[in-house]
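#lab-general

N.A. 3:47 PM
ok so I finally got the sequence cleaned up, no stray characters, all 257 residues accounted for. can someone with queue access submit it? mine expired

B.Y. 3:52 PM
send it over

N.A. 3:53 PM
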Amino acid sequence: MQQITLRNDIKINFVMQGDKSGIPVIFLHGYVDSWRSYVGVLSEFSRTRCAVALDLRGHGDSDKPRRNYSIEDFMQDIIMFMDALGYKRADIVGHSMGSFIAQALAANYPEYVERLVLISSAPSARNNTLLKAVWPIVEALQDPIDRNFVADFQTPSVPLAKVIMDMIISESMKVPAHVWKAALSGLLEADHIAILHKIAAHTLILWGNKDEIFTRSEQDALLSQIRYSSLKEYDGGHALHWEKPKEIAADIKAFLI
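B.Y. 4:20 PM
back already:
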């Protein structure tokens, strides 16, 4: 476990494994998750590649400022994170909210992105029915967050082992109420339909056919707008990296070779 202070004074917690030479792979987690959501994937990842997973601002063990949780804010943190570690380019893997950060980075700062992996993603979250339905509940949250609420919120469409669910819930419990609100508000503003055509990086889209948040038609929209993209469909839900870490890791490794 390591921590680095960005030039905006935000402290970011991260883990790094593998050969530090060459192009790194940076993993971006989803809403109210942490780097630990990729534990199963990282354990399968080749030690010959430098793999870096971080806690986004407000999440895990990173700093939790009172404001600035838009996709743009998260994206700028990633740029500063890469600059601080001396990374000129990286392969970027993003899940859900992390995939929107990855999209924004690849579209607006293509010089930073070698290849792109989008897990459980979409072109836009602005009019997402499920996320909009959750907003009034999240908006009413107060500290301390009720563990039963977190358990219900994080219950995936595909059952997971108790030890994995306990870890996921414990990590989400680290997120204070103001971040639950601000990060979801920022995600609900994410609409990348107009910028997806700017993504030049070769892109792998991973989606589960039991995903209750983002639909197959949204995957087709990503495919049509991102020039060099391909889709791998799984029999799984929204949290594919929890549900099928070995398969996800194998497909990501094969794509990044």
